[in-house]
Amino acid sequence: MLVNIAEAKAKLSSLIHAVLHGEKVVIAKNNLPLVDLVIHKKSGKRKLGLVSNIEVPDDFNQEHELINQMFYGDTDENID
Fold this sequence. Notes:
Blueprint: E1 2-4, H1 5-10, H2 12-20, E2 25-29, E3 32-37, H3 65-72
Parallel strand pairs: 1-2
Antiparallel strand pairs: 2-3
């Protein structure tokens, strides 16, 4: 959707709603595209979790045989 600046000023709320629902909005001056109206994306490094003093055990990534059996069944069977 191409919208000139004057119309964008008058309909800003509805244009934001359109962008949030997946529509592409381009703001123009005299029908010459100038800027895209896009959803804001946070910049910077993302902080994972809320607790800072969690310790991850050394064996965290090691597989557990019982859990593997629950997901994959008996893996000791020979498949011909």
